[in-house]
User: Fold this.
Amino acid sequence: MPAADVQSHPQRPPSNGGADQVLDMISYGVPFRLTAESPEMLERMRRQAPYGSAPCLAAPSGGRNFSLRAAPSGTTYQVLADGKLLVNGAAMALALVQLGGQLTIHVAEYAPDLVFVHAGVVAWQSRALLLPGVSHAGKSTLVAELVRAGATYYSDEFALLDSQGRVHPFARDLRLRQPGKPDQTSVPLAQLNGRAGTGALTVSMVVFAEYAENACWAPEPLSEGRAVLEMLLHTVPVQRTPARVLATVSATVKNAAVRKTLRGEAVPAAQALIAALSAGGAPA
Assistant:
């Protein structure tokens, strides 16, 4: 997104003297600054920036300043935004992961031209499928299975919707949980023999399919009004720009088949979804 599209944010504070290492970046029209105590730490912070971020030659005004620094104990780290403490007393690896999460939510909150919805997204024969859901609902696992089956990968975290209701790629590495382990592992798309989407698509299908052990696959249709309400529950900037979000979500579901169901294992669910996309209908 061009810098001219940047919305206004709280003014960033000045850098802490000449010793700090600084990198200005922009992601989907949202500027932010990274500040660290060393070039090495700054590079590690840069790797946590949201998918689609790029350095800025000239710092846009109004971006937030995210910093990572050693805690007073000297053995753990702190994450701050505009001087406000967000994370305290974390090991370096955990502090970096939490920084990445804070950066992504910041971009999702303030992106001027796109609405971010917590959802997995794939495409099949140019038909886009959205799988909205909260964390631990099984979005990434189902997306991975769809990609293994040949679907085009768009996202395992956010559906990026424009004002026309089209979905755009957010094709970061997938993050999957191993059985019995709470932490996520980054899985490159190539490891799944997958391919990433490159253009915006109209949404053909929206399926709310939360995982539950031994659940039966039984999709039920949702009305357009109910679909909009369900989508709003998973939308990031709904409280800040409700009118824009409502219009975008309404445009997204207007011509889409919308279903809701619990699901068991990912393989049969993926098979049912691909069969429906292939037929141009809704999952049965």
Notes: The chain is about 25% helix and 30% strand. The chain has a mean pLDDT of 89. Helices lie at 39-46, 92-110, 139-148, 224-232, 242-253, 266-279.
